[in-house]
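User: Can you recover a sequence for this backbone? Please restate the input before giving your answer.

Assistant: Of course. Working from this structure:
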């Protein structure tokens, strides 16, 4: 369905995102063509990282465009398991072990969230995970805040 939609409506907005809901803050809108292209890149990345169609990739992410891309890209290349990022590390680790996840996509350390730290702790207790990808959301912040993320 995604390739057909991208062909039929390539320049129409597929999804829009704004980290904060202030009218002057940065926002991002992906067209159907761009969304399709990013999904294909994501699926190809998973395959290049030796994640097969029978492997589980866990997504420990908040709602962002990258989450949408990773969800569909994971479904194209294999099995995707979205996991609530508000869970505690012990719960996250148990889910990673139970689903036999081989890959995890999560956030890079980011202000006012402990998702990266909790996921890192969970992965330490999930020996089957061999690949961890981190998404950096600092590009959605205005310059003064972005500098503090590094």
């Amino acid at each position: 369905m995604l390739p057909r939609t991208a062909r039929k409506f390539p320049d129409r907005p597929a999804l829009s995102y704004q980290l904060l809901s202030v009218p002057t803050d940065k926002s991002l809108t992906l067209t159907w063509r761009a969304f399709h292209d990013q999904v294909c890149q994501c699926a190809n990345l998973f395959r290049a990282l030796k994640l097969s169609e029978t492997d589980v990739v866990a997504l420990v992410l908040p709602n962002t465009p990258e989450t949408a891309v990773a969800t569909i890209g994971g479904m194209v290349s294999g099995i995707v398991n979205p996991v609530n990022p508000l869970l505690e590390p012990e719960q996250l680790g148990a889910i990673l072990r139970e689903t036999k996840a081989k890959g995890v996509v999560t956030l890079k350390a980011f202000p006012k969230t402990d998702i990266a730290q909790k996921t890192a702790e969970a992965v330490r207790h999930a020996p089957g995970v061999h690949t961890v990808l981190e998404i950096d959301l600092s590009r959605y912040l205005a310059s003064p805040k972005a500098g503090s993320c590094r």
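That completes the design. The beta strands are 13-17, 28-31, 56-60, 79-83, 101-107, 131-135.
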